[in-house]
């Protein structure tokens, strides 16, 4: 075994939580080691999450656009997908970005160990690498950024071919005839979109009576309608209660949550996308006295301290919004705190994007939230059908919805269903970060014709004075 080396900071997990934490800590003068078991750094997000899914979504969006160019007067013959080519595109994006992360760590003189890390003590981590095990010492802190794994169902053993998690659904070798998606969250809707565009019939089974739970219910309903028009089939308010194989197909028994009869859904591929659970199993948390909460997350205080002195946790493993950029903000804030600063995460302005087409993006409070909390608010809406650029782009679906405080006019939440909503939301994020009122955006010049004009008009609508509706 190798001799023990010591670092100020030892980070377990090189995903979007761990690696920005390492870079920021190094910028602030700390010596840092990152331990990750994957070949490519970047965690779930880069290897089997955000990045490969977006590469497939981008490729298939182009396919779908190319099929519909005639409405623009552009004639393209024989448009078709070459699945191998699409997968090569995905692989290249993932590899290049992963190599980029490795480069960034080298540039910041962060030591990188490939292997499994487990806690031996509050200041000692064992790394099990391919060529043996060794220990690293943490003189200041150990950071757990081990992320999450796909949750599964006991009845449906994952083989990543016929019954798949999102990881398998990113690498199918042929488009399924019928893809059954269990769970109507963003992962199911995004990967369902990919395979629908590549020719699969897609059925989404969801226990709740709405898709993308957690988003503003008006926006969820609007997205539901658009996806249905695209050919998605939805089986909402239903639970999968059993399954069996029938030849090469999987037959799912589904039961309504309310009254009604059981039914069956037959599919050649089933995607289980029911959420993610924290990855804590092999960290030996108990050796330092850390007990995960009821749902498996590591409890931390506002400074990301766990119950063990000198051990911190960030990212998916501590729960909250399980998003890459939330993990990144936490990693940076923690690094700043460990270097003596006052790093802080503003959880009220973390955007969330569902990368269907149109995209659904949101930041801040939902109308459902505000109602439940008894907050007096005003709503401004503006449809993309009334936006000139959306018209030129033939994007008629979607709307911008702005929620503002009835008394102060402060923007409390913005929800956008529409073309490039994931980019458009950032104007709202930025102004909310500065505590803007709807009136502030309403009085800000927006270039014409552009999609962001729809946000301005929705802000004008808060005061019932839209110009273009
Ligand atoms: P992770 O990214 O999970 O990284 C943890 C790393 O630690 C992993 O590499 C893991 O292998 C390693 N590890 C764990 N335990 C150990 C150990 N004991 N020793 C060594 N290494 C260990 N989020 C977004 O914001 N936008 C998106 O578009 C988006 N799309 C997604 C699509 C899919 C299909 C999925 C599955 C997720 C998506 N997410 C998206 C969520 C995002 O991937 C996570 O929120 C994010 O990766 C969390 O970062 P993290 O650093 O906490 O953990």
From TrEMBL:
It comes from the Bacteria. Belongs to the class-I pyridine nucleotide-disulfide oxidoreductase family. Residues 350-458 form the Pyridine nucleotide-disulphide oxidoreductase dimerisation domain. Disulfide bonds join 45-50. Binds 1 FAD per subunit. The active site is at 448 (proton acceptor). Its cofactor is FAD. Its EC number is 1.8.1.4. GO terms for biological process: 2-oxoglutarate metabolic process. This is Dihydrolipoyl dehydrogenase.
């Amino acid at each position: 075994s190798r001799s023990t080396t010591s670092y100020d900071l030892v980070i377990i997990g090189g995903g979007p939580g761990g690696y920005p934490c390492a870079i920021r800590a190094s910028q602030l003068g700390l010596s840092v080691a990152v331990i990750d078991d994957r070949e490519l750094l970047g965690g779930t997000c880069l290897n089997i999450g955000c990045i490969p899914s977006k590469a497939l979504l981008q490729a298939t969006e182009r396919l779908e656009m190319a099929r519909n160019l005639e409405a623009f007067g552009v004639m393209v013959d024989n448009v078709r997908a070459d699945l191998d080519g699409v997968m090569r595109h995905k692989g290249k994006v993932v590899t290049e970005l992963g190599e980029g992360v490795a480069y960034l760590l080298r540039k910041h003189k962060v030591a990188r160990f490939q292997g499994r890390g487990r806690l031996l003590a509050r200041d000692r981590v064992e790394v099990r690498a391919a060529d043996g095990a060794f220990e690293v010492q943490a003189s200041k802190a150990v950071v757990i950024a081990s992320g999450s794994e796909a949750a599964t169902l006991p009845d449906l053993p994952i083989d990543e071919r016929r019954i798949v998690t999102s990881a398998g659904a990113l690498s199918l070798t042929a488009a399924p005839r019928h893809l059954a998606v269990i769970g109507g969250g963003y992962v199911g809707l995004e990967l369902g979109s990919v395979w629908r565009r590549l020719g699969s019939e897609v059925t989404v089974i969801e226990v709740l009576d709405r898709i993308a739970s957690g988003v503003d219910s008006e926006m969820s309903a609007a997205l539901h309608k658009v996806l249905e028009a695209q050919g998605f089939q939805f089986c909402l308010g239903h639970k999968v209660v059993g399954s069996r194989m029938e030849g090469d197909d999987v037959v799912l028994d589904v039961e309504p949550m309310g009254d009604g009869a059981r039914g069956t859904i037959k599919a050649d591929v089933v995607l289980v996308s029911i959420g993610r659970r924290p990855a804590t199993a092999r960290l030996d948390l108990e050796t330092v006295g850390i007990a995960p909460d009821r749902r498996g997350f590591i409890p931390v205080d506002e400074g990301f301290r766990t119950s063990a002195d000198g051990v911190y946790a960030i990212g998916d493993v501590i729960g909250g919004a399980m998003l890459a950029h939330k993990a990144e903000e936490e990693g940076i804030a923690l690094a700043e705190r460990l270097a003596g600063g006052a790093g802080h995460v503003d959880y009220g302005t973390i955007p969330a994007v569902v990368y269907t087409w149109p995209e659904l993006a949101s930041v801040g409070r939902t109308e459902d939230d505000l109602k439940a909390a008894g907050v007096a608010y005003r709503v401004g809406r503006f449809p993309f059908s009334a936006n000139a650029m959306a018209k030129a782009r033939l994007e008629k679906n979607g709307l911008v919805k702005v929620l503002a405080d009835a008394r102060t006019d402060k923007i409390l939440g913005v929800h956008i269903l529409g073309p490039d909503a994931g980019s458009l939301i950032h104007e709202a994020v930025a102004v909310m970060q500065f505590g803007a009122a709807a009136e502030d955006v309403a009085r800000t010049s927006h270039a014409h014709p552009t999609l962001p004009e729809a946000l301005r008009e929705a802000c004008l609508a808060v005061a019932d004075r839209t110009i273009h509706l």
